[in-house]
Amino acid sequence: MSDRAGQACALxxxxxxxRGRQDLLRxxxxxxxxxxxxxxxRAPGTHFARWVVVPQLVYQGPxxxxxxxxxxxxMFTSNFDGPLEPxxxxxxGPMGExxxxxxxxxxxxxxxxxxxSAKAYLLRNRLATSLFVAGYPQARLPEVLRALELRERVTRxxxxxxxxxAESLALAWRQxxxxx
Amino acid sequence: xxxxxxxxxxxxxxSPVRPGWPLWLHGLFFAGTHLTFSLKKLQQLSFIHYxxxxxxxxxxxxxxxxxxxxxxxxxLLFESNFxxxxxxxxxxxSEVVPTRIxxxxxxxxxxxxxxxxxxxxxxxxxxxxxxxxxxxxxxxxTTTEVISALEVARAFESFIARSRGLAGADFKRSYEDFLFExxxxx
Amino acid sequence: xxxxxxxxxENIQGALLRGYRLPLATYLFLTVEAPASARLWLGxxxxxxxxxxxxxxxxxxxxxxxxxxxxxxxxGVPESALATFPDDFRAGMAxxxxxxxxxxxxxxxxxxxxIGGPDVHLMVMLSGADRRLTDERRRWLRxxxxxxxxxxxxxxQRGGALPGNREHFGYADGFSQPPVxxxxxxRPRPGGGAPQKQGGWRPxxxxxxxxxxxxxxxxxxxxPAPPVLGRDGSYLVFRKLAQDVVGFRAMLDxxxxxxxxxxxxxxxxxVGRFRDGTPLDRLPDGPDPSLVADPDRNNDFRYADDxxxxxxxxxxxxxxxxxxxxxxxxxxxxxxHRILRRGITYGPPLPEGSPEDGQDRGxxxxxxxxxxxxxxEFVQAxxxxxxxxxxxxxxxxxxxxxxxxxxxxxxxGRPPTLISPLSRLVSTRGGEYFFCPSIAAxxxxxxxxx
Lengths: 180, 186, 450
Prior knowledge:
The complex is a heterotrimer.
Chain A: E1 4-5, E2 8-16, H1 22-30, E3 46-54, E4 73-81, H2 84-92, H3 96-103, H4 115-124, E5 130-134, H5 141-161, H6 166-177
Antiparallel strand pairs in A: 1-2, 2-4, 3-4
Helix pairs in contact in A: 2-4
Chain B: E1 4-5, E2 8-17, H1 22-35, H2 39-45, E3 48-56, E4 74-82, H3 86-96, H4 98-105, H5 117-127, E5 133-136, H6 143-163, H7 168-182
Antiparallel strand pairs in B: 1-2, 2-4, 3-4
Helix pairs in contact in B: 6-7
Chain C: H1 14-17, E1 24-32, H2 35-46, E2 61-67, H3 69-75, H4 79-82, H5 87-91, H6 97-100, E3 122-128, H7 131-148, E4 151-160, E5 194-195, E6 201-202, H8 227-230, E7 234-243, H9 245-255, H10 263-271, H11 289-292, H12 317-321, E8 340-341, E9 344-346, E10 362-369, H13 373-384, E11 409-411, E12 417-419, E13 426-436, H14 439-446
Antiparallel strand pairs in C: 1-3, 1-4, 2-3, 5-6, 7-10, 7-13, 8-10, 9-10, 11-12
Helix pairs in contact in C: 2-14
């Protein structure tokens, strides 16, 4: 099984959607705020995540025989900082009402009021075997965010520091980045 | 468009695997993971944040219901977070790692081969799932920007350590070394 | 390697395969008011079009004709055929503004009338060797339009080469064009084509530029229908690009506050060639007129041993336009994004040191390709208006970038030089996507519906 690369982890969950609730689910998903307000932002260590509704399987034509799902499925995938169990604990903790309403459209969802069962539900419905490629497998999310901000600051500093004499340079550096 | 978040782009593709092939895929994934044979070129392409191939077994997860229908086939799920345009992404896959693409998707019904690229794009489009909600923790940063930022952070720590206690011309020289080291990452 | 069938040179318009290097050009943008008369005129003009057939002596004037998607419809091409044309061409340039970085001052709402848009149906390009001849041909052309009736002139754009074949920022241009496989390739000059592993260069497959031939993927991409209309044709991108010469000089001036070397070298670092054309990758220290004058050397470089851009910065203009061996995988990420450029400067030069004179000057940019989206639009959006492909984050090309006042560029070195902020130096004044029909296609269009 490999859903790890370095310390980066991947998780994919497939859960059947209650008959007749697909449209509601889609509406809920498309109405979610994006970016920092997304419910998926609340699970610490999440780099990228998505919800995808799988309404039906696509028939490729002969020689394949038709193969249909009897229910639509909700797919959830997350790329996060491992390990898995603490992440799921965090996911099932503060994810909030919006996420509960979304999972609530799926068959057998115990509700976030019972986080241990919710976690067990996700574990039970996850996909195992995979090949996983990560662009920067060693970097945890806080490190990535700090580094992105630092890069901005160093660039701004470097632009302004050009042509400065040694004394004013050292002073300007200390003002921006602190230090002895 | 739901598969776009800032500069991040998401793609999800599901395709039916021909009987007899899943064992091959399992082996491939095992080899790929433990021998890293397939990963280097993909990483060189440098616009992939994270990409994953997974197999969905014939009985899809049940939620909580009693075991229900068994599907005819296993399915190959591909999902990726990348930068740049969809066309460029598929072009690059086709042109640069066609063998690997064939090894992985060759076992799926309807796969026309990685090259020429137009039929492959049509195949991906046909089997691509629109994304209902996409989240990125750093939508303004591309993969190479993240990698560059991590380099800057590393060099920064190093510079802080070695310039401690330096003053005047010595500090400036050390700073210039730091700048020279990170210039390609700014 | 030869194409599957030889290039039908008598059927392909000359401007597509040849840079005429005639110093004057006039572009008439026409609207069709009466389709029947327009078709007659088109039929007449089709016989005057200069083709790509070999010359005995270089002609001193040339005529070429182009059609927009709207124009095809107005001339009577049926819906079933119109539907076979690609999305990018059908949308037209104004609809692609966000993709192309035509924002702010370059946005379509600020464009000049009559260069693009749904009323522009045809464009005639007249090239000439001297003023007298060009004026005479222009009169002849206008007379023919009057006689025919049914066609209105929406605008006229006039271009003229500057002394030394420089463009308005002062750079000599025109050194690098992709040689087309199967066209005069008995002696392709080093540098324009695709770099080969063993050190040579090969021409680019004809299908990257001309419809109906195998392209770099080895297949003939889909052509518009019917074959007589699509085959041997191409797509033309026309853009009137105004250059802020005073702004450019001021930017150089300000950058000299922090650049430790000469202004000549700084100017070279931004573009990738010294202003006389000496390529930085070959000669990083200074211009060399004898090298520039030698077509076997002035374009023979590949960046392969300078991945860090210490000689020619990775973000320099010509390196962005054609990354050569900067990209990994032996050209696989480059060869399908080449364009054939055929533009000309317009407007009077601004002498060095002069203040802003309010005159309009710049380049009437033209390029040909088999796929607007994969070639022109890709280079514009991914290589000029972004830097991610080169690991430069969102750094844009200094000259063409749609800078919003916060951007920067970095010239590698010890120490590196950072230039910021950057402002827009080139603005789009108008443009359109055209189809460049073959001679047979022009005749077909003149008889459509008959």
